[in-house]
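User: If only I could read backbone structure tokens as easily as an amino acid sequence. Those tokens are not coordinates but codes from a learned vocabulary of shapes. Could you go through the record with me and say what the backbone is doing? Here is the record:
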Amino acid sequence: MNKTAFELAQWFMEAKVQKDPIDRYFKKDLGPESSKIKSAYRLLDAVDELQSGMWMKSWKEGFLSFSEVGP
């Protein structure tokens, strides 16, 4: 889920928008072009994936450098 889709899903969830209005929104092709979410079902499925597996899917690789600090 990209940032735009996440923010849209967050807004739908916080506003407690029901499934039918969400489906109408996507059927009118109002969703972001870059989003794979095209229905209420897919939106809720994506939210469920975040809630149950976010920690696994959100890891990014990076490098850290530490230096020893003495007294």
Remarks:
- Residues 40-57 form the longest helix (18 residues).
- The mean pLDDT is 80.
